[in-house]
Design brief:
single chain, alpha+beta, eleven-stranded antiparallel sheet, 16 helices, 19 strands, 31% helix
Length: 582
């Protein structure tokens, strides 16, 4: 009888976890539930966005008394193949590699160990000219006492197509266009362009998706030119921009032609009439709409995703409520720019679409919720992978493993603490490493009394706030302020003193004079002031800008900050972010 294994995510991944070198008579259970999946061409980089796999059964591989074997796999109804399975350990990099191969598909599984019996996995599934990239997966390895062995592949992986999530009938229209024998060269060109564009429309959920290759032509431009009524209607009903123009300025109306021109014109005309009909419900106040838009913009920015737990939940009810307020505000005839949202960001694009397309409230809310979830899932995984890399793998600098020293059972926090490295210890804990101290034998231990920076180290290990002193001098340092509301960080480099610096030109600025000063204001606080004077030849004659950063040091090289930004043409605005001194 096979044992039932319940797998839980490790809360404290051990450093220097080798994993088994011999996988014989063991079972690998890969938990596919809530993994992320994306597509690409065969063996290419994954295409965004990543979609969430939900309610997927486990991927199980039972190894016999060998690391290489062949077994029959039934991976869909009525289809079976003899699949070659192999396992290759890589103890130096705490990894293992599983390959499954048959004439119809090839599966590559990269195992990264966070303990001797489990960790995280990445799967690349190559089949029929496409590759599925699956990540954010947990796996465990157990002893398997049963005599049976083989491979159980969850059918949800084979049949789960993210395009079908956003299909809603477009797949059938796409297939019909692809198999139609068009006669004229123009129609064949439109057919070719649509064959490339429509899969991307489905993948990104954007009926107005286009690329620089098509010079601003959207699927709606080509559909009007091809005189395809069903496609025009589908695109219009799914929020295609009715006012979009090509790089040469051609409107959607200018592309309408062919035998169905009259019917297509009627579809476009009715869509605009529906779009321009104002919302009849209770009036939305400007302040309420701004607050809702600001909340959504903050959520899209992923402001909490660097928290140590990496588990940032989405307040779906709040997001839906804010989306409805924003939609109704714009639908009442107000301009999107009144909300103060960047029109080039995802949120701004969708808000603008309410003015330029036939977008129902439900479609708009669906856009916001779907893209917010995808943005959060992708960002969470990126932070998680970046943050846990050091916590998972041997710390080469501290252990000198690359010079021949063997790995041991010590935790990363123990190594960093023994070195008195406050910054590294705080970084490890902020990114998910355990506070548990274990020595080379893997046994619980205490820090030696002569540990450098012992008081600060103990405060961090005890989850107390360790106050870091602000430096007196910053000559030779680079200041970097990062904020979700800024497209690029604000930087300054002090060359000779606290009062002389150079800085990078910010977007839309044209200036010749810049000065940044540093002033220590307290034991752990300081102020940085960045003044720039715009040249008369710039966008505004004799313009100026001023950034005042109030710094709160949480480590000797960085911390949190508030930025008060003011220009000649704008009132002061306050932003929150983080800074570093390098």
């Amino acid at each position: 009888m096979k044992r039932i294994i319940t797998w839980a995510v490790l809360s404290s991944p051990a450093l220097w976890a080798n994993g088994p070198q011999d996988i014989s008579d063991k079972k690998i259970r890969i938990d596919m539930n809530e993994a992320l999946v994306a597509r690409s061409g065969m063996q290419l980089e994954p295409q965004y966005p990543w979609y969430l796999l939900d309610k997927v059964t486990d991927f199980i591989i039972d190894f016999p008394s060998a690391t290489h074997f062949t077994t029959k796999v039934e991976y869909s109804v009525g289809i079976s193949h003899n699949v070659q399975v192999s396992y290759t350990p890589d103890t130096k990099n705490n990894s293992g590699y599983i390959n499954l191969q048959c004439p119809d598909f090839k599966v590559e599984i990269n195992l990264s160990y966070t303990s001797n019996t489990g960790g995280t996995a990445y799967i690349a599934w190559h089949q029929a000219g496409n590759t599925w990239h699956i990540r954010h997966i947990d796996f465990c390895i157990t002893d398997d006492n049963s005599s049976a062995f083989g491979v159980e592949i969850p059918e949800e992986i084979i049949f789960h197509d993210p395009e079908l999530i956003l299909d809603d009938g477009l797949q059938e229209i796409h297939s019909e266009i692809t198999h139609t024998n068009y006669r004229s060269d123009t129609e064949k060109l439109y057919q070719k362009r649509l064959d490339s564009l429509l899969p991307m429309v489905m993948m990104f959920g954007d009926a107005s998706f286009t690329t620089p290759d098509y010079k601003g032509n959207t699927a709606l431009h080509y559909a009007c030119g091809l005189s395809h009524v069903a496609l025009v209607r589908w695109l219009v009903e799914h929020g295609a921009d009715l006012e979009s123009r090509t790089e040469k300025g051609a409107s959607v109306d200018a592309c309408i032609g062919g035998k169905n021109a009259k019917e297509i014109k009627a579809i476009i005309r009715e869509a605009r009439a529906w779009r321009d009909t104002p919302y009849r419900g209770a009036s939305i106040k400007t302040d309420d709409a701004k607050a809702a838009a600001t909340w959504l913009e903050t959520e899209f920015s992923g402001h909490q995703l660097q928290s140590p737990t990496h588990l940032v939940l989405i307040n779906q009810n709040k997001a839906e409520q804010c989306a409805r307020i924003v939609y109704r505000f714009v639908k009442q005839g107000n301009e999107p720019m009144q909300l103060g949202v960047d029109p080039t960001d995802t949120l701004g694009v969708y808000i603008t679409r309410v003015k330029t397309a036939k977008v129902s409230e439900e479609i708009f809310v669906g856009w916001i919720l779907q893209n917010l979830k995808q943005r959060r899932y992708c960002s969470q995984q990126e932070y998680r992978e970046a943050g846990l890399t050091l916590a998972r793998l041997p710390h080469m600098i501290l252990t000198r493993e690359d010079e021949g020293m063997t790995t041991d059972g010590a935790t990363a926090t123990y190594r960093a603490a023994c070195e008195g490295n406050v910054e590294l210890l705080q970084w490890l804990i902020d990114h998910g490493a355990t506070r548990e101290l274990r020595d080379a034998q893997g046994s619980p231990t205490q820090l030696p009394p002569n540990t450098p920076n012992l008081n600060q180290i103990q405060k961090i290990l005890n989850n107390e706030s360790a106050t870091a002193k602000s430096p007196q001098l910053v000559a030779g340092c680079t200041f970097i302020f990062s904020c979700p509301d800024f497209d690029e960080p604000v930087t300054a480099v002090w060359t000779n003193s606290n009062n002389t610096s150079t800085g990078e030109v910010l977007e839309d600025e044209d200036w010749t004079i810049i000065r940044t000063t540093y002033t220590k204001t307290g034991d752990s606080t300081a102020t940085v002031t960045r003044d720039a004077q715009w040249s008369p030849g710039g966008a505004y004659a004799d313009g100026w800008s001023r950034h005042e950063f109030k710094l709160n040091f949480t480590s000797p090289i960085g911390g949190t900050a508030t930025c008060t930004k003011e220009t000649k043409h704008e009132a002061p605005q306050i932003y929150s972010g983080t800074f570093t001194l390098q």
